[in-house]
Design goal:
InterPro entries: Beta-glucanase-like, ConA-like_dom_sf, Glycosyl_Hydrlase_16, PKD_6, Secre_tail. This protein is mainly β. It has one helix and 44 strands. The relative contact order is 0.10.
């Protein structure tokens, strides 16, 4: 068997328990001692593939500029400089006909980082005066500041003019080569450029120890003073690279006959003594009956337990850290637990939303869950506003008391799934006024999974008929915009007497089911196709304005004026009289503002002006 291969053994599902499917899949192990001392292989690239380095594991750091050390190479993401072939990764520095050097610098940053454990790289080094290959680690997040404050761990460094001398070092704020205080160990490996050798560190909270082929040659202990001496309590990522020249690598020049240098890496492995934090990965929205694959990080020597909502069917169990299922009819959580001889670890679960693509029109959003329970709910209200929801003849009776319209009172209909309405853009609803005040403005918002709505294309009703008969209100949306995704709708909100145009009052109305269909599906003519409120009903001048705003009304009554910012924020208020219809502009920044007038009869007039001082 290939020495680099990992052996996996699988056991069939164990059974079903209490409404949750539990799938246990056990792996074999490559080293019995690892199972006994609970050392886990948490990262491995064996390079048993061809082409570019695995993008699931590796990123590139690219560019030139010396990299802080007066190095000559420019790092690229080209296959000329890094590639996998014949079971090894090659980092290939090349000199062009113009004399310029290119190379590669591969990092696990953004892919994987570790705090403590054993990091092991089997590699064959290049030779040539001026080469500077390195296997090293840097902090994923520089919590203590820029280099060297947050630390650096050099697992292996080699400079070409000192052939066979392998160096291991740490750099911190207190110990670094700028101050000449770095902590370094050296070992001679005469054939480092001819044979593969294993370069590794063992890193614990107390000490970092360096090895070549299992032989210790250096260690650095935690002095327990401050981060300045020991910043190694944070996750670090791995770096593989070849530099050319530089302050150290080029200290004795660069061989003028040198045209290339190759570092070969046979494998990279990271072991940890405790199970790592991990998360379930996979799609976060699925359709009923859809096949979906979920996975977690693969670790040898552990058992995996998967759990799903009850009606999910497991259809493939041939991989311990990966499972394929046929999704059921409910949203829910996908969970996974790792179990070893020493410990258990539960993954961060993945929340799965049911994704519905309508197939038959109309799609009906029921006002009632059953005959007695409203599907709509009343979110927590502020400003003294309140709602009462009750089942009614054709839907939900909505009783409301609005005392503060500026708090934007609303009720909510959660869909319990994600629905794609890109093709079902026409919405209609049956509504009738029952008693009390007639709502002066209603608005239906369709909320996407990111909590966004389309504020420029509104299903707004500003003329509600009060004859206690059912009337159909309908609106066709134009479709998704950059900030709102109509293919991922999760909620409908109904605002009642809201915002700067909303009136105080108490009353009730009956709300039927919402129907959604493609444009043109409904052949009957609705009673009303509401448009957005026309704010031009209030004539304001001059516009732009500097000092005073003048307005014209058809009645001769006194009233109150209010000024709001474009986002609805209240600015100021005052009173006007029938004889003096003007507003002194307060000290405002330039921009668009809304003016609301409320006369003695409670009628509301809205206009907009641009302040330009």
């Amino acid at each position: 068997m290939n020495a680099k291969a990992l052996l996996y053994t699988f056991i069939k599902p164990l059974g079903i328990s209490l409404g949750v499917i539990w799938l246990s899949l056990f792996t074999g192990i490559t080293n019995n001692s690892m199972a006994q001392d609970c050392s886990y292989l948490v990262f491995s690239d064996e390079f048993e593939y061809q082409g570019a380095p695995n993008p699931d594991y590796w990123n590139y750091e690219t560019g030139g500029g010396g990299w802080g050390n007066n190095e000559l190479q420019t790092y690229t993401n080209s296959l000329d400089n890094s590639y996998v072939s014949n079971g090894t990764l090659k980092i290939h520095a090349r000199k062009s006909s113009s004399g310029a050097w290119t190379s590669a610098r591969l990092v696990t940053s953004g892919k994987a980082a570790w705090k403590y454990g054993t990091v092991e790289v089997r590699a064959k080094l290049p030779q040539g005066v001026g080469t500077w290959p390195a296997i090293w680690m840097m902090p994923q997040n520089s919590v203590y500041g820029g280099w060297p404050n947050s630390g650096e761990i050099d697992i292996m460094e080699h400079v070409g003019y000192d052939l066979g001398m392998i160096h291991g070092s740490i750099h911190t704020e207190a110990y670094n080569h700028i101050l000449g205080t770095q902590k370094t160990g050296t070992i001679e490996v005469e054939d480092a450029h001819l044979q593969f050798h294993t370069y590794s560190i063992q890193w614990t909270p107390e000490k970092i120890t360096w090895f070549v082929d299992g032989v210790e040659f250096f260690s650095f202990s935690n002095p327990h003073i401050s981060y300045k001496e020991w910043p190694f309590d944070q996750p670090f990522f791995l770096i593989l690279n070849i530099a050319i020249g530089g302050n150290w690598g080029g200290a004795q020049g660069i061989d003028p006959d040198l045209t290339e240098a190759v570092m070969e890496i046979d494998y990279v492995r990271v072991y940890q003594s405790t199970l790592p934090d991990f998360s379930v990965k996979g799609p976060d929205k699925v359709q009923p009956g859809e096949e979906a694959t979920f996975f977690v990080i693969p670790i040898s020597g552990v058992a995996y337990q998967w759990s799903f909502p009850q009606d999910v069917q497991v259809i493939s169990d041939d991989n311990s850290n990966e499972v394929m299922v046929e999704w059921g009819s409910e949203s829910g959580m996908v969970q996974c637990k790792m179990i070893s001889d020493c410990e258990e670890k539960t993954a961060n679960p993945l929340s799965i939303n049911l994704y519905l693509v309508p197939e038959e029109a109309p799609l009906v959003l029921d006002a009632l869950k059953d005959d007695i329970t409203p599907a709509w709910i009343v979110p927590e209200q502020s400003g003294g506003n309140s709602f009462l929801l009750e089942p009614s003849q054709k839907g939900v009776k909505v009783s409301y008391s609005i005392v503060n319209p500026l708090e934007n009172p609303y009720i909510s209909l959660s869909l319990n799934y994600i629905v794609n309405l890109e093709d079902y853009r026409t919405a209609r609803v049956n509504l009738r006024v029952l008693d009390g005040d007639v709502p002066n403005v209603l608005r239906f918002d369709f909320v996407d999974r990111n909590g966004k709505v389309n504020t420029s294309d509104l299903f707004k009703i500003t003329s509600v008929v009060d004859d206690q008969e059912y009337h159909i209100y309908q609106h066709t949306f134009e479709g998704s915009v950059s900030t709102w995704n109509m293919a991922e709708i999760v909620e409908v909100r109904l605002y009642v007497n809201y915002g700067i145009t909303g009136q105080k009052g108490e009353g009730s109305f009956e709300l039927g089911d919402i129907q959604l269909a493609p444009p043109g599906f409904f052949t009957d003519i609705p009673d009303f196709v509401p448009n957005a409120l026309k704010i031009s009903s209030l004539n304001l001048w001059p516009n732009p304005v500097r000092n005073y705003i003048y307005f014209e009304l058809d009645n001769h009554q006194n009233g109150q004026w209010q000024i709001f910012a474009q986002n609805g924020q209240f600015i100021s208020q005052g009173v006007y009289t029938a004889e003096e219809r003007k507003i002194k502009v307060p000290d405002l920044m330039n921009g668009l503002y809304f003016i609301r007038l409320i006369n003695d009869e409670g009628k509301i007039f809205v206009g907009k002006v641009f302040v330009e001082k």
